[in-house]
Here is the input.
Amino acid sequence: MAVHQPVSVFGFLATVALALATPVGAQSLTSIVVEYPSGRVISESGADVVTYPASLTKMMTLYLTFEALRNGRINMATRLPVSKEAAGQPPSKLGLRPGSTIRVDEAIRALAVKSANDVAVVLAEGLAGSEARFAQLMTYRAREMGMTRTRFVNASGLPDEEQRTTARDMAVLATRLLMDFPEYYGFFGLANFVWRGRTYYNHNALLHTYPGMDGLKTGYTRASGYNLAASAVRNGRRLVAVVLGGATSGARNREMVRLLDEGFAIGASADNGAAERQPSAGESGSAAGTALKTGRSSPRPNEPWLKGSAGLREGANYTVQLGVFPSRRVAAETARRTARTVPSLRGGEVSVVPLGSRTRSYAARVQSLTKAAARSSCESLRRAGKPCLIVAIPERAAGSR
Here is the structure.
């Protein structure tokens, strides 16, 4: 049974002409590197050239899934039905049978790790009634985020000449996933996913070889080439990078490594300390998204920013975020329980931080940790399939609750 609700966006695509340039072929490699969360553009090459997203599309499919989870329309145990249309999708896929079901938590892992096309359609149909309707919602949300050169026509990223994006737009989406859903970001860094006794491994080999890389998504079609959106942390500083159109996966990965190494070698911006603002999921934009468009950071007045994440040393103050919850009580209970059960969190200070300006929500955090303890905690929690995001905060900000 579908778990969708009516959304008045059918006229949206009719009123927006979407007169985008014809996408380029896979031979054209484009890229962008931005500082998170300030949004400062560190480097870019053809970042506004229109091309094909391939399976980076699934980042938006998951964004809308995370929205549905936060809004209570579904939960992790909700079972979604598999239609004949979903089961008939070409690989990469799990091989779901028509008439069967799959839990939401399994579906999320299948998309983040296996990039399963059949599961993408299951989520689309379950949340919106049809994949076509879901794709309209995806494009609508992209417009709200400022992704002006992106159009989605399916939930998977399978080849379609009308499905298009740019490196800059994909960086906006990656940034919004980090900002809006830190409690779910850990899914993008899972090393593997087990389904019916078979283990599927993450397609992003750099998760295992590039120090500090902890998530996001690969993609490939013949028309798009090899794509990768990635985020990495080094010395308390996070970068988000997108490479589109690699001739091979190896060439794409080498370009990503080069861009991130160069990005980390460049000094942090003065306002990168505007670190870890967490807007509500209902907000239509973000300061980081604004900076991606304008090249400068534009924090809004009266919104909380935690200052200074660059250049932290091993003994500095690190915080881990364990999820975002609709009530302060649930956030506090989650933080206390996790701090008791994860050895590397013991001795840390439990903190609950109100987030957002429209829809109040609360981040569960444990602070006053060393970098090693923060990393160890998140590695342990992610192996267990639980959310964890490292937030680096300097000593002077540690007293803020």
In short: The chain is about 30% helix and 20% strand. The chain has a mean pLDDT of 80. The longest strand covers residues 225-234.
